[in-house]
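For practice. Any example?
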Amino acid sequence: MSGSARHRLRSDLPVEEAVRLLRHGDLELEGRLRGASNTTLRAVVTLDGVATRCVYKPIAGERPLWDFPDGTLAAREVAAYLVSEATGWNIVPPTVLRDGPLGPGACQLWVPTRTGADALRVGFVPAERLPAGWHAIADAVDDDGGEYLLAHADDPGLARIALLDVVINNADRKGGHVLPALDGTLRGVDHGVTFHVEDKLRTVLWGFVGRPLAAEDRATLESLRAALDGDLRERLGELLTVEEVEATVARLDRLLAAGVFPAPDPGRYVVPWPPI
């Protein structure tokens, strides 16, 4: 009998309980998520009669990347969670490093999502029907010649995801990596290519360029900067190189000094492919 059959799967766990469950629970694999470039498995994790779904990404299933030669994608996933946790924005689902059926890897809480047109916050929309207040990022044409726009909503949740991506230097913020959770929040997943020492930011969330930081968000980023002078720096140092941690601090310092959302680098590709 599977774990999902023995226990009602919880999706409303407090963060501390979710982290404990992910770190110490028994993993039972359900299947592979098709379309992922690295081995990505859905699993049920169970501990003391409590069960939930998670995503398990074993290090053994990572494809080598020439431009990310140091560390592992799994460690970067956890580092992204630690930075997100320090902001209190609840963007990255609880994520831990642990052993599993295919060896050590990242284990992240599964996020049940809303569906339907009202849940869409980023994606392709017909060029003549850009929703009011949305930001157009790029033009697109389908196989039949129909004209579309890659666009996203002017949403405070998206703005905070965009700020997190600046800090962690996310090289792969696709639209499909933004999840509309059942509780109405927006969550961000897939942070394996982050924290590079060089500017690698590639995202579909360029609509906020030049906008001043909201006062509340600036205060959060200042608190994050203070945390990076303390325990958070040490915790990141267990997952990243010293140079990567220092580069993270430098990116945050530049963001706070500028006081606005940064503009894309005109000398390189700044939108991931595929964008969704």
Observations:
- The helical segments are 3-6, 15-24, 73-87, 156-168, 215-227, 231-237, 242-258.
- The chain has a mean pLDDT of 94.
- The longest strand covers residues 50-58.
- Residues 242-258 form the longest helix (17 residues).
